[in-house]
UniProtKB/TrEMBL annotation:
This is Cytochrome c oxidase assembly factor 5. It comes from Anopheles minimus. It comes from the Eukaryota. Involved in an early step of the mitochondrial complex IV assembly process. Belongs to the PET191 family. Signal peptide: none annotated. It holds the Pfam family Pet191_N.
Length: 82
C-alpha cells in the first residue's frame, strides 16, 4: 500500500479504489512507462522484467477485489483488498 503524506485522501471513494491507485502508481513508476514510454496497459502485458513483480501482485489483488464485489459471499467474508 502506498504511503501518503499528511491528510491526502483519494477522490475516488468506490470499492477497490486504493488498490487501483496503487497499481496505477506502480505502473507509472516502472521502467516500462518511464524509459520506454509505453502505456500502463501495454506494460501489464509485458514479461521482460521492465515491470516489477509488485505490480503483478497488485494486479492480482485488484482482480480479486473486483471479483469479490460480484460475489454474494462477500457479505460474510468481507471484500478482498483494501
Amino acid at each position: 500500500m502506498m504511503r501518503y503524506e499528511g491528510n491526502e485522501e483519494l477522490a475516488d471513494k468506490s470499492a477497490c479504489a486504493g488498490v487501483r491507485a496503487d497499481l496505477k502508481m506502480c505502473l507509472l513508476q516502472s521502467d516500462c512507462c518511464k524509459k520506454e514510454k509505453k502505456t500502463p496497459r501495454e506494460c501489464l502485458n509485458r514479461t521482460d522484467g521492465s515491470v516489477p513483480n509488485e505490480c503483478f501482485v497488485l494486479r492480482n489483488t485488484f482482480f480479486e477485489c473486483k471479483r469479490s464485489i460480484l460475489d454474494n459471499r462477500q457479505r460474510f467474508r468481507g471484500r478482498k483488498g483494501y
